[in-house]
Amino acid sequence: MNEKGTREKIKEAFLHIVSFWPFALSHHPECRNFSNHTIHLGKIRFCIGCFIGYPTAILGIFLLPLLNISHFIPIDLYLLIAICLLSTFILSILNLTKNKGIKILQKFLIGLGSSFLFWYIMTRPNSRLVNIFIFNIAFGVILGVLNLYHVLGFILTCYKCETPFLWGTCGGFNIIVKNFEKHRLNNFFVSFEEFSKNLVERKEKKKKSD
Q: What is the rounded distance in angstroms from the CA atom of residue 128 to the CA atom of residue 165?
């Protein structure tokens, strides 16, 4: 590939990334099936999990020592508190987080639980570097489980839709498709059309057999 062709490929890849910018903040399509996963701040949509959970965790890490919480709550109880707060994840499994208020509260508690977990680990009788490593492993596992659950939930929600994975014409991805058109990019979402058609036919056959 010559230099001009390489530049064009890089430009095209960059414009594809730019086209997904709205999705970078909301992490969910503009679809009624995902409406309880996002909040609006002005005209911008934000993912509740990321924009409630992460800031809460970061603020908690800084505020817990500043507020001298350990003066009222022994450090040894931090682990128990962290487990209790993080276990509110079960509200998602019980479908209670379909209520947006409960979801926001849950993400706040999970973020706060991460803060308590951080300071519990950081006060262990190890070197600071070892404790940071342990926390990164623990937080990585927690984050991996949460993200895996939400990815599976995302896929299942799309699967249950009357037009499963038909993202090329789905209203939820409309703004991204318009960005593709604006930048004269290939709308690779249309490659899902055959897959979506087969899923719909499979669902219809299953209904008839039931």
A: 47
Buried b (16+ CB within 10 A) or exposed e, 85-115: bbebbebbeeeebeeeeebbebbbbbbbbbb
> pTM (2 decimals)?
0.81
Residue found by looking up tokens 């209203």 in the block: 171
Helix axes 100-122, 78-86, angle to 10 degrees: 150
pLDDT tens figures, 137-186: 999 999 999 999 988 988 888 888 877 877 777 778 888 888 888 888 88
Residues whose CB is less than 8 angstroms from the CB of residue 150 and which lie 6 or more positions away in sequence, other chains included = 49
Which tokens go with 9?
């490929």
